Amino acid sequence: FNYWNPALVNARIQEMMVVASYADAIRCDMAYLLLNEQIAANWGSQLSSWNYTRPSSEFWSVAIAKVKSAFPEVLFLAEVYYPYEAT
Predict the structure, then answer these.
(1) What is the Cα–Cα distance from 36 to 75, expressed in whole angstroms?
(2) CB under 8 Å to 73, separation ≥6 — which residues?
(3) Do residues 63 and 55 make contact, with C-beta atoms less than 8 angstroms apart?
(4) Can you list the positions of beta strands (E) in the chain?
(5) Is 0.85 topped by the overall pTM?
(6) Other CB atoms closer than 10 Å to residue 21's CB: what's the count?
(7) Separation CA 87–CA 85 (nearest Å)
(8) Long-range contact list for 40-47, CB < 8 A, 24+ apart?
(9) Which residue of 25, 50, 72, 77 sits 20 to 30 Å from the alpha carbon of 13, by its own alpha carbon?
(10) Predicted confidence pLDDT, tens digits, the chain (87 residues)
(11) Cα 17 to the chain's mean position, in Å?
């Protein structure tokens, strides 16, 4: 999935909205792999060749804010490894 593609980001957020409408929590396995820094390190040159640019915001910041605006009580549980805990 190309998380630098706004259409994909919107689609994934809509999927989380559906999950949040049924569940109390959303588990985000390997969440740190969606950080822009990680995407740039792994796929940046490929994405640039397809004219995608690094977003100004992190996917999780946008997604969590949008889901919580509709479902404020939903919890997000994320898996992350050193050194990305704070991010």
Answers:
(1) 22
(2) 24
(3) no
(4) 25-28, 75-78
(5) yes
(6) 11
(7) 6
(8) 43/2, 47/2, 47/4
(9) 50
(10) 999 999 999 999 999 999 999 999 999 989 999 999 999 999 999 999 999 999 999 999 999 999 999 999 999 999 888 888 888
(11) 13
